[in-house]
Amino acid sequence: MMKHATIQRGFTLIEIMVVMVILGLLVAIVAPNIMGRSDQARVTVAKTQMSNIANALDLYRLDNSHYPSTQQGLEALVSKPGGSPEPRNWNPDGYLKSVPEDPWGRGYEYISPGSNGPYDLYSYGSDGQEGGDEDAADISVWDSEG
């Protein structure tokens, strides 16, 4: 009888190490690009949320002939506000289910200088302070339109 030689197939230690080095290089090249995109994604989320809030504010104005005052704030889109100007045709279902926080966990800033005039809706960005660059820059509802 002849003995058959068994051939073992597998990877050598050197082959595994070469693959690990290649994977390490790929992670080193790709990871910074992916990590930088999370900040960009948060800015995009903020712009989308502000656009949704702006639509709710426009519906509020259509029903009530004015925007909520600064004192009534964005909560006027969730529950019927008191104070002046009084919302005469406030939608009992509200205009938003809740007022979202910006992607950095802070409330959006809302200022309404006049009942029919333009309002301002903005986020201070990642740093939570006025001004800034890149993802720390202020984001206004007017930046996301047109």
Helix content: 25-40%
Strand content: 5-15%
Radius of gyration: 27 Å
Computed structural class: mainly alpha
Average pLDDT figure: 84
- Total helices: the number is 1
The biggest beta sheet is recorded as: 3 strands, antiparallel
The total strand number stands at 3
Which regions contain 5 or more consecutive residues with pLDDT less than 50?
none
How would you spell out the order of helices and strands?
Answer: HEEE
Shape: elongated
Q: How is the largest sheet built, in terms of strand order?
A: 1-2-3
3D architecture notes:
By secondary structure, this protein is mainly α. It has one helix spanning 13-64; strands at 109-111, 120-123, 139-140. It has a three-stranded antiparallel β-sheet, covered by helices on one side. A hairpin with an 8-residue loop joins strand 1 and strand 2. The protein is elongated, with a radius of gyration of 27 Å. The termini are far apart. The mean pLDDT is 84.
Present the secondary structure layout.
Layout: H1 13-64, E1 109-111, E2 120-123, E3 139-140
Antiparallel strand pairs: 1-2, 2-3
Quick recap:
With 146 residues, this protein is mostly helical.
Task: List its traits.
mainly alpha, 1 helix, 3 strands
